[in-house]
Design a protein that fits this description.
single chain, about 375 residues, mainly beta, Immunoglobulin-like, five-stranded mixed beta sheet, four-stranded antiparallel beta sheet, 5 helices, about 15% helix, binds 2-acetamido-2-deoxy-beta-D-glucopyranose, Ig_sub, immunoglobulin domain, repeat, Ig-like_dom_sf, Titin
């Protein structure tokens, strides 16, 4: 008669996957044997996440059904993987299916298991969790702009990491506007051709095995007109020389440049023999080839972007004839003259003489 009772309890609890009470379990009830053979477990294997250097969050799924008897509490145990001993993580009752485990030791490997209890008794222990190692996580550094290039950098460390960039709510993809890179734990995004519409909040989202995190940066686009960082300066040249005028200028936003001679626009293609235009990353040059007295004029350059313009000007003075050579410098002339003759395939006598004057003029 006595052993019929656990049998009844078991019949009630079977869908709950709970064992009969510990007293019942010691009997030789057929139901008990049946249960043992099936190896029914009640609670899913716990999962540890949000690992820090001394804590982690362990969660699990409740039993599919409580079988009419409410789950009263869960029991969560931890074990250092190299040890055999299981230790309860808390003496408190755990009513939720998640628990924040504290006081772990950095560098050790921990496993977890969980069981539940209701009026009918306790379940079996769940399967053991995947081990975790508490360690210092390198926090995500907030993105920061590198001013000149308008690029955002974020530094963090983790394997199997996915990085996603957002501008407001919009996810960004690598294209001609955005260049997205992730190398050596540094995620970088370049915003190209920055304009006022790029103003706003940028978000870098990082997802790895342990969870996800986001960081934000604000971009304020300053609307500024171009500015000459190296302006034109007055020049003197001799007839036949090539004169190179150069300026450097801020390139964000990229300016359009126009050269003028005495207020008249010099357009590329107007006189290809006379003028050569060169530009490279903020350095803009105008070469006036084989100057004549007609090139004696004021030259100016205007740089414009959508926010404004800047200009500068300089005088080119063309001197028709070389001055008489200075006797004290005569030995040096010879060397320069020889060099000039080697380099030029023009009338050696005259060209050589002009180059010589030129060198004298520029290297006092
Ligand atoms: C990242 O992966 C490398 C090689 O797979 C491994 O040596 C390293 O320990 C891993 N680092 C982290 C933080 O998991
Ligand atoms: C330079 O200009 C002079 C006068 O216009 C001309 O005679 C000479 O051929 C030109 N030289 C070159 C290299 O263009
Ligand atoms: C350049 O030449 C112009 C015209 O001759 C003159 O007004 C100006 O002061 C000169 N600039 C410099 C920096 O010498």
């Amino acid at each position: 008669m006595v052993w019929n009772i656990p049998l009844v309890i078991w019949a009630h609890l079977s869908c709950l996957c709970l064992l009969p009470s510990s007293h019942a379990a010691t009997t030789s009830s057929p139901a008990w044997q049946y249960k043992k053979k099936k190896g029914l477990g009640c609670v899913s294997s716990p999962v540890a996440s949000a690992v820090t250097k001394d804590s982690c969050v362990v969660s699990w799924k409740p039993p599919a059904s409580d079988g009419g008897a409410k789950i009263r509490t869960y029991y969560l145990e931890k074990r250092e993987k190299k040890q055999t001993k299981w230790i309860s993580v808390t003496t408190d009752e755990i009513r939720e299916t998640v628990y924040s485990v504290k006081d772990l030791i950095e560098g050790l490997e921990y496993e977890f298991r969980v069981k539940c209890e209701n009026l009918g008794g306790e379940s079996e222990w769940s399967e053991v969790s995947e081990p975790v190692i508490p360690k210092s996580d390198v926090p995500i550094k907030a993105p920061h702009f590198k001013e000149e290039l308008r690029n955002l950098n974020v530094k963090f460390q983790a394997n199997s990491t996915q990085v996603t960039w957002y501008f407001g709510m919009r996810q960004l993809e690598s294209n001609e506007k955005y260049e997205i890179k992730y190398e050596d734990g540094v995620a970088t995004m370049y915003v190209k051709d920055v304009s006022k519409s790029d103003d706003g909040t940028y978000r870098c989202k990082v997802v790895n095995d342990y969870g996800e995190d986001s960081s934000y940066a604000e971009l304020f686009v300053k609307e500024h007109p171009p500015e000459f960082t190296l302006p034109l300066y007055n020049r003197t040249a001799y007839v036949g020389e090539n004169v190179r005028f150069g300026v450097t200028i801020t390139v964000h936003p990229e300016p359009r440049l126009t050269w003028y001679k005495s207020g008249q626009k010099i357009k590329p293609g107007d006189d290809d023999k006379k003028y050569t235009f060169e530009s490279d990353k903020g350095l803009y040059q105008l070469v006036i080839n084989n100057v004549t007295e007609e090139d004696d004029a004021e030259y100016s350059i205007v740089a414009r972007n959508k926010y404004g313009e800047d200009s500068c000007k300089a005088k080119l003075t063309v001197i028709p004839h070389p001055p008489p050579a200075d006797a004290t410098l005569r030995p040096m002339f010879k060397r320069l003259l020889a060099n000039a003759e080697c380099q030029e395939d023009l009338s050696p006598g005259l060209r050589g003489w002009q180059d010589l004057i030129y060198f004298l003029d520029t290297s006092p």
